[in-house]
3-dehydroquinate dehydratase (Thalassospira alkalitolerans), 146 residues
Amino acid sequence: KPVYILNGPNLNLLGQRQPEIYGATTLQDIDTMCRAHAVDLGLPVIFRQSNHEGELVDWIQEARQEAAGIIINAAAYTHTSVAILDALLASDLPVVEVHLSNIHQRDAFRHHSYVSKAAKGMICGFGAQGYTLALDAIHSLIHTPS
Ligand code: DQA
């Protein structure tokens, strides 16, 4: 089964959007990096982005049946979405949370994450490299059941 890598709102603008915070790497570049790293790990991946909360919920519900684990950067919904949290809890899958920026260095409203309540752990502050770190993490979670 594949790992679902799900990306939330405005991440389609990576590379153009606040590059001083999020870097010059585009989401397409991150998709390519993840695919290459996933091949090395022998882990199939499905990489998606949506600006819509409900679509992210639908994909998490789909992952419940179809995936071995979820890597999620819920972007702004991290800080607001009980619906995404509930979908992740219902999935019963290993979840790794990713953020490009170090959310704890930023605005106070970014310090709280609903996603964290459902995640095994969080990787933040390492930019695009956080996604490959998250793949390593989910790979060991899938292959070393707790
Ligand atoms: C983000 C951090 C969020 O606070 C923000 O709303 C984003 C991106 C990150 O990857 O650093 O859109 O999730």
Observations:
- The chain has a mean pLDDT of 97.
